[in-house]
Amino acid sequence: MENLETRLNEVARIAVRLEQETGCPARLMIAQWAIESAWGVKPVGHANYFGMKRATRHTQWCTVTTEEVFTPAQLDTWNHQHPTRPARVITTLPDGRLRVEIDDEFADYDSLGDSCQDYAWLMTHGDPYQEAWRHYQQDKDLAGLIKGVTRTYATSPQYAELAEAIATQSNVRKAIAEP
C-alpha cells in the first residue's frame, strides 16, 4: 500500500498541472481530495476522490450510503425527491439540523487523473460555484474561494475550516513545490 507522502505527491503533480491548464488552485484540489477520500485511501466507488455526486455529464456512477447534515426543510425535499430511498435520521444537532444517512448516487472514474480533471472542471465551470470562482478570478483569495465553494459542496458544519487548514499545511505546500 502506498504511503501518505506518495499519494500526496501523486495528486499534487496532477493538481499543479490542472492549475496551469484551468486555473483551479492546486491547494483547493488537494484539500478537498484529502477530506473526501481520507488522503487518497477511501475513494467513493473505484476512483471518485472528491465525493462528487452524479450529474448528467457522468457516464459512470455508483450508489453509496453516506452521512449528511440537513435542515428539516432539506430533509423534506430529499425525501420528496427520493421516495424510494428516503433519508434516515441519525441524530438532531444542537442547532436543529439533522445528521442523516442517505443512499446517494456518486460519479465514478477510471483513475485519479480523471477524477481530478472533472473536479477542476466543476470548480471552474459548474453552476453552483460560479460566483465563488468569479470572485477568485478577481482577487485570488484562496480562503474566500474555499468558503464560497464549500458552502455548496459540503453539508458538514466545519468543512470550510478543515479545507483551509489542509490547504495551508506544510506537507501540502511542499508537495506542490516539488517538481
Give a written overview of the molecule.
The chain is of the alpha+beta class and 179 residues long. The protein has 2 domains: 4-46 and 110-177, Lysozyme (Orthogonal Bundle), CATH 1.10.530; 61-106. It has 8 helices and 3 strands. The chain has a 3-stranded antiparallel beta sheet with strand order 1-3-2. Strand 2 (88-92) and strand 3 form a beta hairpin. Helix 5 (130-139) runs antiparallel to helix 6. The longest helix is centred in the N-terminal third of the chain and has 19 residues, at 4-22. The two termini are 23 Å apart.
Whole-number tally of structural domains: 2
What is the CATH C-level name of the largest domain?
Answer: Mainly Alpha
CATH architectural name of the largest domain = Orthogonal Bundle
Rg measurement, Å: 16 Å
> Ranges with pLDDT <50 over ≥5 residues?
none
Distance between the termini: 23 Å
Broad shape: globular
Sheet with most strands: strand arrangement: 1-3-2
Number of helices: 8
Largest sheet: 3 strands, antiparallel
Helix content: 40-55%
Give the helix/strand class.
alpha+beta
Number of strands: 3
**Average pLDDT metric:** 94
Order of helices and strands: HHEHEEHHHHH
Share of β-strand residues: 5-15%
Question: Any descriptors?
Answer:
globular, alpha+beta, three-stranded antiparallel β-sheet, Lysozyme, 3 strands, 179 residues
Task: Sum this structure up briefly.
The chain is α+β, with helices and mostly antiparallel strands and 179 residues long. Helices cover 53% and strands 14% of the residues. The chain starts with a helix and ends with a helix.
